[in-house]
Amino acid sequence: MVYLLGVVLFALAILISVSLHEAGHMLTAKAFGMKVTRYFVGFGPTLWSFKRGETEYGVKGIPLGGFCKIVGMTPQDDDVEPGDEKRAMWRYPVWKRTIVMSAGSITHFALALVTLWIIAVSAGLPNPNFPNTEDGFKAEPAVIALAPCVVVENAARACQAGDPASPAGKAQLQDGDRITAVNGKPVSTWGDMLDVVRATPPGAATVDYVRDGKPATATVDLAAVQRPPLGDPKGATSAVSALGVALQPTTPTRVQYGPAAAFGATADFTGNMAVQTLHAMQRIPQKVPALWTAVTGGERDVDTPISVVGASRLGGEAVENNAWLVFFMLFVSLNFFIGVFNLLPLLPLDGGHIAIAWFERARSWLYARIGRADPGRVDYLKLMPITYAVILIGGAFTLLTVTADVVNPITLFSR
């Protein structure tokens, strides 16, 4: 029940975000004097509505988004009533149309930024100095966290019956101990410790460590395992020794900020998120085969795209595991992605309308400079084949991601 509540809460958060997106279009259009005739949450049959002024507001039966109707978005629209010609959207200056069409994405960015600022002040944002590369982790002090067992073969899996116990645990080492030497060879970093342990033959070895500021020594029976060379996870495996520990980073994973400092931290985090979002969008075509593999019974790649269905399922897992920080970070990431995606210069996305408006403006300026007559507005009807192609490809991709999220979803927690 908690999981289902989380799914519903996240789906509701997405619906509110999309509704605010459309409200951004509506409010900016009204502010400039454009005529907005309809604003609805959802699609399909109307459940409830009322009219205030010239705009009808209401709720539709299928809660999968929302829309607002701005009169005369293109010169080819036939929804302009007599007397409203000057209020048709396409007649307004390009900068006003740009603001109206980008207001939806700006709303998503605002939701993400406000949520990030609240997180920065309350729970803290990821520490930019926390090591996020293998070399970074190797430079950390050799402070250990005991593993429950040693996996002999080279496999990333949970412990199973029959796996040998952690040698460090059997020797009474504890979480938080800092290793200083192995068989008399000094180590200062996690990378040093890995090098020395792997170069030591399996069997008895002395381990010097510091606990609560006091040095001590333990005799450990190092386990024999199969591992690839350090720094080359796909290399050929060989027999090496293992201590049965993991790194316990001393660098805090999150940093909490004051109200003023949180603005700068939020801006920095958003900049990094923008770069990651663009890289993720560039990789989408490469991930289609992986999605198809997930749908047809293969293992789901955690780096594949997810739909709103998958995001809602992850939100449900977060609530089920009381991981509200994960819930809200998912909300931030999704809003930021939707904001960026909607600005792509493709019809029928908002970015496509913006691109056409500025293309018209640039073309008019160029023709005026070379002494030719203004060619006028772009004929949207001629662009319909491209628009339909974008809708078809986008629809197929959405169907693929939704199917993968239903039959083979990505999970963050063990359930």
Automatic annotation (TrEMBL):
Keywords: Hydrolase, Membrane, Metalloprotease, Protease, Transmembrane, Transmembrane helix, Zinc
GO BP terms: proteolysis
Compartments it resides in: Membrane
Main location: membrane
A Gene Ontology molecular function term of the record: metalloendopeptidase activity
Family: Belongs to the peptidase M50B family.
Protein name according to UniProt: RIP metalloprotease RseP
Species this protein is from: Micromonospora chaiyaphumensis
Taxonomic placement: Bacteria, Bacillati, Actinomycetota, Actinomycetes, Micromonosporales
